[in-house]
Amino acid sequence: MNEALSTIKDKTLTYQQKLIGLARVAENTINVLKIDDEVQVYREEGIICDLFEGNAPYRPRYIVPNYEKFMEEGSQFLKLQPPTNIWEAVNSLLILYKHVPSITSFPVYIGNIDTLLEPFIKDENEARQAIKLFLTHIDRTLTDSFCHGNIGPHDTKAGRIILEVEKELENAIPNITLKYSDETSDDLAIKAIETALVTAKPSFANHQIFTNDLGNYGIVSCYNGLKIGGGSHTLVRLNLSALAQKAQDEKHFMETILPDAIKRMTRYMDQRVKFLVEESEFFQTSFLVKEGLIDIDNFTAMFGMFGLAEGVNHLLQAKDLKDRFGHGEKANQLGYRIIEKMYELVSQHPAPYCNGADGKYLLHAQVGTDFDHGISPGCRIPIGDEPSIPQHLMQSAKFHEFFPSGIGDIFKFDETAKGNPKYILDIIKGAFNIGMRYFSLYCTDCDVVRITGYLVKRSDMEKLEAGGQVLNDAVVLGLGAVKNQKVLDRKLRKDE
Amino acid sequence: MNRGAVNRIIPFSSVDGPGNRTAIFLQGCNLNCLYCHNPETINQCSDCGRCVETCPAEALKHQAGKVQWNEESCTHCHECLKTCNLNSTPRVKFMTVEEILEELKKLQAFISGITVSGGECTLQIPFLVELFREIKKLGLSIYVDTNASVPLWKEKEFLSLVDQFMVDLKSIDSEEHKMLTGVDCDVVLENIKHLAIRDQLYEIRTVIVPEVLDNQRNVEQTSKLIATLNPDIRYKLIKYRSLGVRGDLINTSSPTDEEMKRLGEVAYSNGCHQVILI
């Protein structure tokens, strides 16, 4: 059946989901990018994958508006004065969110929502009521799990209210990250962990590392670190599992196949970025640019990768667990050398319109998508192969320095941890101490579960599988990942 | 050099005191509780070699009269524990202070401290004193999980090195304690009082065992004792579970959640501030 017609007739899609789907079909009727044959071959083989960004980029994939500026100055285009109380504050933000584009058509970054609201908190009960409506409104209208809010690193009344309300609401949207540093109180961190054990958020970002790498940053979409007032033009990903199949041996991979693939992929990214910036008129016309909420000089683009574990295991023909990535010394070392080399080569490429990252594309450990059958996200150790938690942390943390635009691991705990949340805080402190950038956790009994980087409700996946419609457009991705990547079977972290 | 008999080390534990702790279980116990959940920790190995015959992974060898355990080839099937008729295990490591420290240094960034448990760890106090002196230098807190049957108030240096104790009070009645463990509870109670005065008593725990123990009396009187000593001492009530227990010694079942909750209420109403049910 014609793609447009099948979208129209799909019983599981809501009206809004159809509209977005049809826009994608329309975009893909034109071919405006100059894609060379070498790139096209890798695209067709699934080695280079643009995650359905579409044939003609007309908005950056991720936009990270400077909401602080908006709250101070209001918006001429939106005809909004700066807010003067909590109700005006949440109303203004909710209005702006509806006008922040992204790959999903929903905002992937909604601001450091605690510090944005804190100045307006006069009466805590009233603020709680406003924040509860604010968060509920977000969950029901920005119906996409890649919508992400930040809190922290400092303790605020607003931050605490947000954590308390989320614990009560158990919504999948928005995703939330606590920027965590030495300046974050243990008390706030424990409260965050208690909330995460109920509703799988917030995750913890290593504030010091992100600040060193990016300056004033936001955590966006899954766990992507990007400059505030900027964003990422595109995210294309390299499938290391499939790429490894092309190599005769390790040396061939390191010296020929990998450098060549990086060249092909950067060429493709350049094409996407140039069309967006030079031809789509986005940066020339958007009120976000005109009013200074974003600035092209804060932008970069993300060079994604996934399937490191499977690529390494293939190159070494590692069959037994003791030899595989995450366990075998040789495999772990090869994994490290591959990423080190990728970092070096990607950094050498002069990336157009990426002044936000000194003219470079930033490496990103991509979390996979619903159809990645048996290929692990980013540099993750495959589900089912996970070693004990101390070993897991030490092995994973080594990669984090190479990925300023995002990498992270997810740990599943059982209910015992609820009686001793400091246990998890100690683990997070240790992980950040050895250079881990991002840490996510949830509890076995949560309805909201972290799929790979984003959150979906189990109950929504069941509804979709039974043929029903669900508001959140990421549920379909979650369901695919559950089937293809065993995400519900992550190792349970008990005392070990 | 002084070596400790170590049954095992759990790098990350969420249930052996506050925060994330490395739990070090020492081998050997002076009690023989009817409901012991890990009877293989009671005695030291006699090197009889019976387990060598039954080990399917060939991880055990009899050499020069000693049973040797090869950790690398062990598959943790526990066949050796089933074979042993001495309440012991061939998998004990006799570790030096340095060897344990080496393990701890790898974990140091991730933990609040360590907890030493057993078996009964206070049977190896000279070793623990040496170990704790070094652990203090790492800035880690030291918790000790004990049956408190050794007069700890006499062990001045040991006491000064430990941050907090977690004490089992298996029964508050001497007769019942003797029936259950083989010894009375006079020393245990004396220890509890000393530790509470020194503000070193983090937690008292009692296992609730239907039909075998007078649980109502134990909780009633223990909670009153805690309330008079310091109501902030945690009182942990542990549900009896049959996992790992020698079935021929005890005939009982787990208490219901309702019963646990009821006993918890008793403890609260007697003035305890923190009652934990597990």
UniProtKB/TrEMBL annotation, chain A:
One Pfam family here: YjjI-like
SUPFAM superfamilies, alphabetized: PFL-like glycyl radical enzymes
Gene3D superfamilies: 3.20.70.20
NCBIfam families referenced in this protein's UniProt entry, alphabetically: glycyl_YjjI
Protein name, per record: YjjI family glycine radical enzyme
Organism: Alkaliphilus hydrothermalis
From TrEMBL, chain B:
UniProt-listed InterPro entries: 4Fe4S_Fe-S-bd, 4Fe4S_Fe_S_CS, Aldolase_TIM, BssD/PflA/YjjW, Organic_radical-activating, Organic_radical_activase, Radical_activat_CS, rSAM
Domain 4Fe-4S ferredoxin-type positions: 38-65
A Pfam family per the record: Radical_SAM
Required cofactor names: [4Fe-4S] cluster
Catalytic reaction list: glycyl-[protein] + reduced [flavodoxin] + S-adenosyl-L-methionine = glycin-2-yl radical-[protein] + semiquinone [flavodoxin] + 5'-deoxyadenosine + L-methionine + H(+)
PROSITE patterns to which the protein is assigned, alphabetical: 4FE4S_FER_1, 4FE4S_FER_2, RADICAL_ACTIVATING, RADICAL_SAM
Keywords: 4Fe-4S, Iron, Iron-sulfur, Metal-binding, Oxidoreductase, S-adenosyl-L-methionine
Domain Radical SAM core: 15-273
Family recorded in the similarity comment: Belongs to the organic radical-activating enzymes family.
Protein name: YjjW family glycine radical enzyme activase
